[in-house]
Description:
Elements: E1 5-14, E2 17-18, H1 20-28, E3 34-36, E4 49-51, H2 58-61, H3 72-88, E5 100-105, H4 111-124, H5 133-136, H6 141-150, E6 156-159, H7 164-178, E7 184-191, H8 196-202, E8 233-241, H9 242-247, E9 255-264, H10 276-286, E10 296-298, H11 305-319, E11 325-327, H12 340-354, E12 356-357, E13 373-374, E14 380-381, E15 386-393, E16 397-404
Parallel strand pairs: 5-6, 5-7, 10-11, 10-15, 11-13
Antiparallel strand pairs: 1-2, 1-8, 1-9, 3-4, 7-8, 9-16, 12-14, 15-16
Helix pairs in contact: 3-6, 7-12, 10-11
Amino acid sequence: MTVRVAVTGIGVVAPNGLGLDDYWKAVLAIRSGVQTIDRFDASPYPVRVAGEVSDFSPTQHVPGRLIPQTDRVTRFALAAAEWALQDAGVTVRDLGDFDVGVITANGCGGFEFGQRELQKLWREGPHHVSAYQSFAWFYAVNTGQISLRHGARGAGSVVVTEQAGGLDALAAARRRLRAGDLRVAISGGLDAPLSPWGLTAQIPSGKLSNDPDPARSYLPFDAAAKGYVPGEGGAILVLEELEAARERGVPTVYGELAGYAATFDPRPVSGRPSTLPEAIRGALSDATMDLEDIDVVIADASGVPEMDAAEAAAITEVFGPRGVPVAVPKTMTGRMYAGGAPLDVVSALMSVRDGVIPAAANIADIPAYYDLDVVVERVREVEVRAALVLARGHGGFNSALVVRAI
């Protein structure tokens, strides 16, 4: 018998909402968190717009002793994990020492912390650099800090495949649960790439939008698309084997992680097509579902015209022209790297729960040649039993994950 893995807890830190309820209300209201950068002076940079988390106070959400040793991204991760565990009604220390594991994704590391300590090194010398620099910048630090904070001593790891990593981490946690290695998995992804150093590291890709207007800067699948805006935040989910969760009296079961697959694209200069269609088919096969079972696709939505075209081609190749509604909630958050895909999974689960498909912000002119049914202007009320979430990572990573109603 196949073990079914359910989502029983959700914690969200997003530019348009802290916590699940605030985030989802903002999505349904098409309220964006994309704005002119105000956490630092971005005027010297060509990119001046981002999805900022503007109302997060670390002292309200993170123990004081952890503030000096953590980057902004880890504070997000600690808060999201706390909210997810509370939502699931899980107290880690009530379980066996190795029954709970943490598997997260991160694409940027601790940019802000690292910049500050490197500036101390250059200006004041090595003795002024924090000892916490040894780990606060590292991709795996969120996994480590969540594990330490909650006493989760089971299997733990980190995935670094940019935006695809958020789905890859959830899939890795699902495998551990299905193998019986864990009873509870804390999984998801977050990033916080908004600092002078972080922005400088992203600009050379050539994929970021230079438009200074927050309402026009990130327009995936739109004729005016010119790149993406970076965003910060993400989501942490609590995953459990479905029957075990029911036996312990879990407060809420949001849905099932029903299918997953990943592929890797050939080099762009090879002339060979993207393997994203194979990832989509693989996820459907893993879920033992047919095309008509999918009620919505939540797109990766790069905003880079050639990447949008490749994703549109993959979706239409599998589902047919305008064959399935396509949602793009990240138009309200920016592209959040490792945090983007888990947040899209949250949106998928909320769509299943509430019977709505969220509308994208600002998209107005979708070229006919894309042949996509992108949901815009207003939410679409329709029964949603299953959703497909797509994510692509820099370097050729493709991931697809199916969430399904229980």
